[in-house]
Fold these 2 entries.
Entry 1:
Amino acid sequence: MERKNIWENYDHKQLKELEKINQEYRYFLDNGKTERECIDTIVNMIEEAGYVELAQFRKSGKQPQTGDKLYQVWMNKSIVMFQMGEEKLPCGMNILGAHIDSPRIDVKQNPLYEDSGLAYLDTHYYGGVKKYQWVTLPLAIHGVVVKKDGTTCIINVGEDEDDPVFFISDLLIHLSQEQLEKKAAKVIEGEALDIIIGNKPLLFDKKKDKEEKKDKAKDLVKQGILEILKKQYDMEEEDFISAELEVVPAGKAREAGFDRSMILAYGQDDRVCAFTSLRAMLDLGQTKRTVACILTDKEEIGSVGATGMQSRFFENTVAELMELCGEYSELSLRRCLASCCMLSSDVSSAYDPTYGSSFDKKNVAYLAGGLVLNKFTGSRGKSGSNDANAEYLGHLRAIFEKEKISFQTAELGKVDLGGGGTIAYILALYGMNVIDSGVAVLNMHAPYEATSKADVYEAYRGYKAFARGAEL
């Protein structure tokens, strides 16, 4: 089948809208480098558009009506939004689902130490990363510290021009003969990903009692860091125990290429699909079916935990919504979930000519090739795959053709090389129609990933068309 570069499809008006969507997307990336920051950004956007928190709506004593917009947040890391349609909920919903967590480096609970005049934070990487990609980069620290009294301190250091940044050291080339003989997976070990955060010892006023200096004589660089933390955040060393601190690349999302056709940024897997799903929700207009958007946590480590898709957060929230509508029963809930149509919106690997031998060129996504449909993911013999049925694919083709949405089909690399998973198989457990659908990404899981602006725009258009028109 012939593949066309979709930039050729757009008129002047569409190109202008494309740039506007991508500008908003870069803002979303810059302000949502962690799950918590994503949720804060999303809630601000949707409340401005008229969304009301489910618990607040419940207090009004009203029943949701067509066009009402409701949402619920779970543990500040996952969110589900609903725009009520004309049909009853047992008839099913159209669902857009994506994840807002990304590979990164997490700070451990007892992290601060000093070695040879350098202060470090001990870390544990999160998700699938090539560890050697993270050394010598300028890094930022984002997260929260929750103290014993329940107060929360927000940490965000390394993003402003005047902020300090942090880094992981690497061995100089002159001494790296043994290191370079190691396999890539072993060049940098996980325990070597500790970040350097200081080198200046705690300084004492000469007029102060000598006993104070004697008491703090050990690990003076560490002591200096603790003094800064106390002064700036009223934080003690023990407060690390109840902290969630994430280490991410410092800096803003950037346009890439002389033609500014791409975006280079951290966290595009899977915030590119999260943003385009969210933006589609905000621009829907009235719909026949209720439309839901799930933006969830923990996909990069198997969708586990209370904020991952394997929890019952979404199911419980749908039950709450049906109760508000006067439509709840256990059977009605099951009917609703089984009758849903869903796009599991997650990224796909873009063809990279430099590493062409890893791909099947006929069955791979291309930058500027349009929205990507992955009939199945999984690995090798489709292990762990959802594998959507032909009828559902035919239905989606009809929707996209009607709305002139450019799309492509793909697999994640050659059959025996590996693979990947998404949240699709979890939602498919309810018996609903689900397919993976997303944006092609170069450098997936690297500190900086690349997407095409055209694909971002086409994903937004495709998700909106699906949300308005899907029904089986």
Note: The radius of gyration is 24 Å.
Entry 2:
Amino acid sequence: METSIINRRDLFIGGGAATVAYMAGSFMPLIAQNTANLGAPSVVQVGFRKQKLGDMEIIALNDGVGRRSLAAEFVRNAPLDQVQAALREQNLPTEYIDIPFTAFLVVSGSRRILFDTGFADNGGPTNGRLMANLNAAGYKAEDIDTVVISHYHGDHINGIRNKAGQLVFPKAKIMVPTVEHAFWMDDARMAAAPEAMKGAFANVRRVLKDIPADQLMQFEPGKDIAPGIKSMAAFGHTPGHSLFVVESKGEKFAYIADLTNIPALFARNPDWQVQFDMDPNAARDVRRKTFDMIVADKMMVGGYHFPFPAFGRLERLGNGFDFKPVA
């Protein structure tokens, strides 16, 4: 299997991608908070789902949901009426977008490996539920031996450290992509960034500061990170955005993090570009290649922003793909 889907390490170094990159600075507040005049989104009552994968178990852990109004800039390269029509065809609201947050726990023998972390107590009233759902699934924070981060947007890393500054998973090694870490920890790049993006840089430092080198471990995207778990370079959403394929007894599960935001839009229309992608062209290319691989290899798939239970299967549908959640 090809584990390095796309390598765009240098795209974010010069000024060519700078303008679109700055939009990432506004990503977190927009989806962590709810738009008051649109009401509050519904939070799932049972926020965990277990699924066998060979000798392993995959557990989806919902951290909550955010609601934001659907504006013309949400899809960069499609008119708003076309986006609304796509939602209407699937009996989905057209005035707003609900964005769920779901991390995944892999249970493999004695290993407990968590992919992404949600908000902890750093978010809004309809998120920060991962720990309660982890407990409901039969595990405690101390049981997690490894936390794997796909990229450094706040909704994926804020759950590493609570508002008081304590590490939420005190016994866990924290594994991060080398390319992603190098980008966000670059002091010169932070100094040169506009004010709209400085908050994203500062948040990375708040979360990762003072974590010892033997606990914060970097991995090269494309390498194995644990027995049966391979990382995949999937740059575009962010400079080091990484995906993961878990395999046991010939069964495969792909955790695709933010490869697509809202599958009803960006799986069905993989060439559409969400405003949160820092390099939308690279993100589009890697999305198609990854979806082709998932369908060809008949993998189960899970997405951080997929509707709960957030995993299922992808099927081809016209020029795109359709997400079919597990029953």
Note: Residues 4-310 form a domain with the Metallo-beta-lactamase; Chain A fold (CATH 3.60.15.10).
